[in-house]
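hey so i finally got around to running the thing on that chain from the lab meeting. sorry it took forever, my laptop kept dying and i had to restart like 3 times. anyway pasting the input first so we r on the same page abt which one it is
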Amino acid sequence: MIDAIDVKIINALLANSRVSTTKISESLKISNVATQQRISKLEKAGIITGYTARVNYSAIGMKTIAYVGIFLEKAKHYEEVIAQLKKVPQISQAHFTTGNYSIFAMITARDNENLMEILSSKIQNIDGIARTETFISLHEGINQSLFLENTEPEK
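ok and heres what got predicted. didnt touch it at all, straight out
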């Protein structure tokens, strides 16, 4: 279980994964050692799974974001299909879902032509996929970290 200090550490890292432990420690008024021990505990518990940077893909020529609903021939093909989808570098997320689609994936491509190539040569050729339905994003309205709320009373 995490406490209020852990929540504040997680939120500090969500706001800026490059923030120093010294800066976190100063804001929480605890020692660097205590902060580092808590971060290590959160990593070992699988709560913090990595550190990342946000990239403006459009600025480097990756201008098309698409979401692809994937229909499987049979649900039992899920693991094999996911293994093959992991080999497509333009797919950044894939979720096993309820509803119409078995898998919903996010693709970043250079442009619509590149997206069409990814779909036709890489995704639709995967055994177990019956068909796909693609939605192109016109504008990203929200892209933010999900900050945690402290549910523990302050001491």
